[in-house]
Amino acid sequence: QVQLVESGGGMVQPGGSLRLSCAASGRTFSNYAMGWFRQAPGKERDFVAAIGWSGGNTDYLDSVKGRFTISRDNAKNTVYLQMNSLKPEDTAVYYCAAALARRAGTLYYTESDYAYWGQGTQVTVSS
User: Fold this and answer.
1) Are the CB atoms for 58 and 109 separated by under 8 Å?
2) Distance CA 108, CA 110 (A)
3) Which residue in 77, 76, 80 sits closest to 49, CA to CA?
4) Angstrom distances, CA of residue 20 to CA of 37, 91, 104, 122
5) pLDDT tens column, 70-112
6) What average pLDDT does the structure give for the chain?
7) Which long-range contacts (CB under 8 A, 24 or more apart) does 17-20 make?
8) Rounded distance between C-alpha atoms, residue 96 and residue 81, angstroms
9) What does residue 31 show for φ and ψ, rounded to 5 degrees?
10) 66/5 Cα distance (integer angstroms)
11) What is the distance, to the nearest Å, from the Cα of residue 72 to the centroid of all Cα atoms in its chain?
12) Rounded to 5°, angle at Cα 97 from 91 and 123
């Protein structure tokens, strides 16, 4: 079992920044690829960003490329999502998720790839 707890959400004005954190406990964090997803009101949960267990490979939803950065600190069992230049359309509940990775660089993009999920943290971008 892997337990995931997100933090860092809140309300911010358009153009502002937030840094989400996801602390993991349980099994060996470095064996897991990690991802961030988000779910806006009335919509399905969507992929936002992914990172391999070594941290060397990352990928993003097109609409957040250049604004969001995913990173991880395996010594602290934590994955981060730095969000800059936030827009109202980024408003959603953000979830982190963990997938047991077969190789260091493997990334996962769909919900079914991820076995463990956090409870979510609300991000609201509004003036």
Assistant:
1) no
2) 6
3) 80
4) 12, 13, 23, 10
5) 999 999 999 999 999 999 999 999 999 999 988 888 999 999 9
6) 95
7) 17/82, 17/83, 17/84, 17/85, 17/86, 18/83, 18/86, 18/123, 19/80, 19/81, 19/82, 19/83, 20/80, 20/81, 20/83, 20/94, 20/96, 20/121, 20/123
8) 9
9) -85, -5
10) 26
11) 10
12) 15
- Are the C-beta atoms of 35 and 110 separated by less than 8 Å? no
Q: Which amino acid is at 14?
A: P
Q: How many residues does the chain have?
A: 127
Position of tokens 């990173």?
71
Give the chain as a 3 state SS string: CEEEEEECCEEECCCCCEEEEEEEEECCHHHEEEEEEEECCCCCEEEEEEECCCCCCEEECHHHCCCEEEEEECCCCEEEEEECCCCHHHCEEEEEEEEECCCCCCCCCCHHHCCEECCCEEEEECC
Round to whole Å and give the CA distance between 92 and 35.
Answer: 15
Mean pLDDT of 17-29: 92
pLDDT of amino acid 118: 97
